[in-house]
Design brief:
The protein is an alpha+beta fold. Among the domains are: about 45 residues, no CATH class; about 60 residues, no CATH class. The protein has 15 helices and 18 strands. Strands 5, 6, 7, 8, 9 and 11 form a 6-stranded antiparallel beta sheet that branches. A 3-stranded antiparallel beta sheet has the order 4-3-12. The protein has a 3-stranded mixed beta sheet with strand order 14-13-15, with no helix packed on it. The longest helix is centred in the last third of the chain and has 32 residues.
Length: about 475
């Protein structure tokens, strides 16, 4: 049942002005949708009728040679939190249990992908009363095309201080039998739910209060102190400003040029890359239908002007090398401006030398390590915020509140290194007094479950298992190259 408080409750002009995007914000929010489309291969390039026929696709189909997905995945595939470290063992165990309960392996992939692709994405951390534990939900950035998504509103773009966060979406209201626009506002001390009925005055928001739920919802500790805004902002290429930058920002214009070069190459291949016969003085027709022949492999072109004698000739195939070179040029430019290894775009039987591959990966590794640093801080803040919620709302609140310590996220290595290099690093860390379990995580990339298994094994069995894992790494190249 939906209960509406009195009509005197309205959104303030200050909040309404924040919800109405400026020209600069509107442009950025429109690009969020464009980046998602480019990643998904929905590019604004159209095929001619002849190409549609040749490629056997439906009219209106977009066509692309999608390098954008490679640019994004090159970074995302190397972003994986594999362990969480804390000096307080009780807090470390609690955090890891929460990490597994929210299925963070899949969750972090979605978060990292959206942040790298769009430039900004959000994680909402709230309390699940049914499960009796914190809940983490990924929400994409608000975009002006779909009029949905999440956004943190700041006092300034250059010196950002969060004021509140908003989440907008459209859903069917069964009690009203029509779609309504929903809005939830997250403040440090309260949560407000609003609804907009398209049949009412445009832009008019009314409080939304499900039965049995207070309005607004208090968001404070047992002592009455604000819990803080439960929305965590992941910024790609964080430069200290309010919003991040998509990895596709520099790639999109070049992707359009690459698509054009690809279409030109197909068009040239379809019309000039084969031998065409010519007829002077007569019109060759299809023997079975009597219709004129279309330009296609084995077809004819002719003139109706009757010469003294009929003549048959041919037009030799055109050289497609210049178009192939142009296509390769745009692919190389995408690799250069996005710092993506060129080898990821090339299909060749020749394998580049190990030194060449490492040289190509310098820019990519730098991007990954920068993302690990900024994203890691956000994950740590979100997990410690979840601890605060458990202390406030959970049955074991006092016990959780006694847990303390600094939390560090441990990432899988950003670079692909040889097993020999990993062994050298492991021996150096061991000689420096680094605990063996930490070496298993930081050097060999084991997750927490594998570390627990290795810790419980006898030394001989452990060495045998380590040898098997290293052998798999050599064979499959998973995490290291031989």
């Amino acid at each position: 049942m939906l209960i509406m408080p009195g009509s005197e409750t309205t959104l303030s002009d200050r909040v309404l002005s924040q919800l109405q995007s400026s020209a600069l914000e509107d442009e950025r929010e429109t690009w969020y949708a464009h980046y998602r489309n480019y990643y998904d291969g929905e590019h604004p390039t159209m095929l001619t009728d002849r190409m549609l026929e040749f490629l056997q696709v439906k009219p209106g189909t977009t066509f692309c040679d999608n390098y954008c997905v490679v640019v994004v995945n090159a970074v995302v595939n190397r972003l994986k939190v594999i362990a969480l470290k804390c000096d307080d063992k009780a807090l470390a165990a609690w955090v890891w249990e929460l990490w597994e309960s929210v299925r963070a392996d899949a969750l972090q992939r979605r978060v990292h992908l959206a942040a790298v692709r769009d430039g900004d994405t959000y994680l909402i951390v709230d309390w699940d009363p049914e499960a009796g534990r914190p809940r983490m939900t990924h929400n994409v950035s608000y975009d002006s095309e779909n009029l949905s998504g999440t956004k943190v509103h700041y006092t300034s773009e250059q010196i950002p201080q969060p004021m509140f966060a908003s989440k907008r979406w459209t859903e069917l209201a069964p009690e009203w039998d029509r779609n309504l626009t929903r809005l939830t506002l997250y403040y440090p001390d309260r949560v407000e739910k609003w609804v907009s009925d398209p049949k009412q005055a445009r832009g008019e928001w009314m409080p939304y209060q499900p039965e049995g739920e207070p309005w607004p919802i208090p968001w404070v500790t047992a002592a009455g102190k604000p819990l803080g805004i439960p929305v965590f902002h992941f910024r790609n290429r964080d430069q200290g400003t309010a919003y991040g930058t998509s990895e596709l920002k520099a790639a999109v214009p070049l992707q359009d040029a690459l698509n054009k070069a690809t279409i030109d190459l197909i068009a040239a291949g379809d019309t000039t890359a084969f031998r065409i016969l010519t007829a002077i003085g007569f019109e060759p027709k299809d023997a079975s239908t009597g219709e004129e022949l279309k330009i296609a492999p084995g077809s004819w072109v002719w003139t109706e002007a009757p010469p003294t004698e009929a003549e048959i000739g041919s037009i030799e195939p055109a050289d497609l090398a210049p178009l192939l070179s142009l296509h390769s040029h745009w692919g190389s430019e995408i690799a250069r401006v996005t710092e993506t290894p060129l080898s990821m775009f090339q299909s060749t039987r020749q394998v580049a030398a190990e030194g060449t591959l490492k040289q190509q990966e310098i820019g990519l590794i730098a991007k990954v390590e920068a993302a690990q640093l900024t994203f890691g801080n956000v994950w740590e803040d979100a997990l410690m915020y979840a601890r605060r919620l458990a202390e406030t709302f959970g049955e074991e609140g006092e016990a959780v509140g006694d847990m303390a310590g600094n939390l560090d996220s441990i990432w899988a290595p950003a670079s692909v290194r040889s097993v020999a290099e990993l062994r050298i690093e492991a021996e150096a860390k061991k000689a420096s007094g680094v605990p063996e379990q930490r070496i298993w995580v930081e050097v060999w990339g084991y997750d927490q479950d594998e570390v627990d298994t290795l810790s419980q094994m006898r030394e001989a069995s452990r060495d045998q298992l380590l040898g098997q894992i290293v052998g798999r790494m050599i064979e499959g190249g998973a995490g290291a190259s031989a």
